[in-house]
Structures are given as C-alpha cells and as structure tokens.
Protein 1
Amino acid sequence: MIHIKKPAEIEEMKVAGALSKMALRRVGAAIRPGVLTSELDGIAESVIRMHRAIPTFKGYGGFPASICCSVNDEVVHGIPGARLLEEGDIVSIDTGATIGGWVGDNAWTFYCGTPSREAVELCEVTCDCLKAGIAKAVPGNHVGDIGAAVQELAERHGFGVLRDYVGHGVGHVMHEDPSVPNYGKRGRGPKLQAGMVIAIEPMITLGDYEVEVQGNGWTVNTVDHSLAAHYENTIAITKDGPVILTTDDEGPWCSMQGGV
Ligand code: MG
C-alpha cells in the first residue's frame, strides 16, 4: 500500500532528510586513504545522535552499523569495520536518520584520493542517472518512467543496472511501497501522485549487473568484481514537481571528492 503524505508531513520529513544529508556530508569529508571504515560509521552515528535522532540503519533487519559503506566492487550494504580505505578507492556511503517519526535516506559515492578515469565516468554517469530519475518524479508519470530514464542513460554508456536491488517508498519506516526499480518501461508501474515520497537510488556497475551477497549476510558485490556506484536522494512528488527532502544548508548534492 502506498502512503500519501500531506504537505505538512512532507515538511516534517525535511528534518529527517536534512540530518541524513548532513551525516552523509560529514562522512564524505572524512574519506581519505588510511581511514578505517568504522571511523566513518562513528562520525555518522554521532552527528545523528547529537541531533537526538536515530540512525535508521542500526539494527534494521539486524544490520550492525549506522552507515552502509561499500568500497569498489561492493555495491550496497557494506558493513563498516576494520577495512582501511586506500588511494583510488571509490566509497559508497548510505546514511539514514529517523526523527519526529520520519525517515530520511540518501547515498553518495565518494572518491578516496585520486580515482581512475573509468571510476570518474561511472560516478558522474550514475549521479546523472539519479538526476534523470528525479526529473521524471512528477504527478501523472509512472514508476516505470523513472526506471526507464535511469536505465537508458546508464546503458548508453555501456554500464550495468542492478536488477536485484531497487529504490522504495519512504515514510515512517525506511522501506515502503512502491518499489522503484532503476530499469523499466515508460508508462508502466504504479502511477505517481502528489504526496508520494520515494527514494530514487541508481546502483550502476562498470561491468555486468549480476551481484552476490558476501558471507557476512549483508555486503553486496558485483560477481565480476567490476566497480559500482550508488547515488540516492529521498524525493517528495508534489504538484509543483519533485522536491528533494534530503537537503541540508548546502543543498542536496555532495562533493564527489572525499576529504573536502
Ligand atoms: Mg534507500
């Protein structure tokens, strides 16, 4: 069932969205070679708790941390821990904050040091896929319009579009209806209407889109070990067009470059 939010509820959701973005930005600023991924987790958790909010991911389905930290061939749901970031890594960070009973969910792939040229192309195209998807998030369109826009742009560059993981509705809980795939056909799927809030989150690979879950039960990596990127914002569909809820004082976008 798709929950339609009232305008006042969407305003409330901006608080969770802003905090989620702030945590993401702080983590990005700390990304540099030699940093432990567990340190990044601590930064996000303290930013979120400092604002008397709850790190949405911690304990969600048993997930053990406040962020997902997925490095290189890891696409999503990486568990932060004893891994040291290395020069040239690309690091996908996903943060979620719950406050006032609402969830904000967003993700960004950062460069650790200087990335390869192919990593830069992958990240820039994946971020453009997110923007292309958001542009389709208007009343009267269908969920398939979002997926088609993301898929067409990614595949034009020869990149893979994950099938096994998709975007989702967001509200009082992190995962609501509808599912928002990054592939699809125009005019298909549930019709979008004002008051729907969805996380649009392209997960794009340099090679094949097949993925597998590691032995820890969480971390998802590409089977061919090609690089992957992941950009996400939480969007409200309104009569005036898409409104990005995961926006802080600096806006809805982060620097691609970690450590700044
Ligand atoms: Mg999400």
Protein 2
Amino acid sequence: MTKSLSKPVTLFKSAGRALHPEDTVVQAGDVKIGGGNFAIIAGPCSVESDEQILEVAESVKKSGAQLLRGGAFKSRTSPYDFQGMRTEGMELLLKAKEAVGIPIVTEIISVDHLPLFEDVDVIQIGARNMQNVELLKAVGKTDKAVLLKRGMANTLEELLMSAEYIMSEGNEKVILCERGIRTFETYTRNTLDLSAVPALKEQTHLPVIVDPSHATGKASLVESMALAAAAAGADGLMIEVHNDPQNALSDGAQSLTPSQFDEVVKKVMKVREVIG
Ligand code: PEP
Ligand code: MN
C-alpha cells in the first residue's frame, strides 16, 4: 500500500494512514461518516427562502439523506451572480435544522463569519478556498466537523496538505470531498476524478465523499456518478436537490428534483448492498 505514495509516509503527519491505520469516523450531530458509515448530504446549492429550504429539508430527509446542505454565503465565480442570502440564509437554514431535525452543512467564506457557525454541524470549505490557509487554521481551532472540498486544479497531495492545516490546529474531524477537477473537457462542468476515492483512502484514514453535482454540472449525469462513487468505496455523497430546479438562483442545471433524488438514494443503497 505504501508503495504508491509519492512522498515519505510521514508527509501527512495527521491525515496519513501510515501513523493512523484505522479509518476515522467523523461525527456530526448524531450522524457518523466513515469507517463503514455511509452518509448522504443533500439540499439546494443556495438557501433561497423559508419555504424552499423547509420543503427540500423535509423531502431529502424522508428520502434518506442524513444531512441537509444549503449555501448562505456563496463563493461564486462572477460578482454579478447571486451571492447567497448570507446572514438571513443562515437563520433560515438553522430554522430548517430545528424544524426538520436534521444536521446541517454550510460553507464558510470568511474567518470573520465564524461566530455565525456556532450551531452549524459541518463547516464546508469550498473548492475556491481549499488553500485559504487562514480559513483552514481558523476552522482547525473549532470542534466542528469540516467538509473540505478539493480545489478545481489541486492535486490529492495538496488536498491532504490542506487537511493537515486543519488537523495540525487540533481539529481531526475532517471529511474530504472530490467534486471534480478542471480538464480540457467542456461537456461536463468538471471532470469527476473517481480514482481520487481509492487513491485518497490508501493514503489517509479520513472519510472521503463525492459530489457528483458540481463534478458534472448536469442533473442527467448525477445518478450514474453517484452510483459509481458508491461502488468506488466513497463514504458518502453530497447531492444538490431543489424543489424547483428551473428557477433555482444557483446551480439549477445540476440540481435534482426531490423525486429524482429519492430514486438515486434507492439505487445507491442497492449498490452499497452489493459491494457489502
Ligand atoms: C457548493 O457546494 O455549492 C460549491 C460552491 O461547491 P464547490 O466549492 O465545490 O464549487
Ligand atoms: Mn452549487
């Protein structure tokens, strides 16, 4: 196993498997991720209204999602695109957490916003911030689970080094997320690097999940990639679900409807049974 490492095994002091052979199980609320515990995170790209987040939260929970996602602070490519409902979005997401009884995942884009994340179960570091070391160090000083997304042009080694930034501050609750990388292909929004799942898992004890929504950018491709990710040994999935994808304020093209999501969860569970 160690033969495939490009660098000495001590390179990843905290995240590396060499010094910590057992899988880490990250707990978020009452949900466990890793070490054989598979978790599905689902919800809209952005929190848009009280009704939207409540409706989606209820439906994804009923379909079997263990965690609700929803962006309040968005890191969009264009400053002219919807930037999220920000503080108000956080309030609506926390309200949905309470009303539906489901732990939540949401993205942080600034160290200054950390006090707003007190009741958030999993803090997401987005692809665009994977190497924002001040942000990594700040979440590393908290006791919150952190979902660290791979940057769109970052290697696995760089992703693991970003995990080290968080862990070296004392926070070992890190979940890694493959969300597609930039290649010459333009049909899909990104190219899903599925080999990242086994490649990461042989190097690290941390849970590894896959986001087939941002990886493909197309709702029609999400199911296949979700099934493939489960078959490849991922510890979970993050899938964008919207109650009205055509009118979504962000990422509608890649968002599943609640009923499409329900189908995907059923099939993913079948794949999980087959692979044991
Ligand atoms: C998101 O999860 O909505 C998001 C912005 O993803 P990424 O950081 O992977 O682009
Ligand atoms: Mn999105």
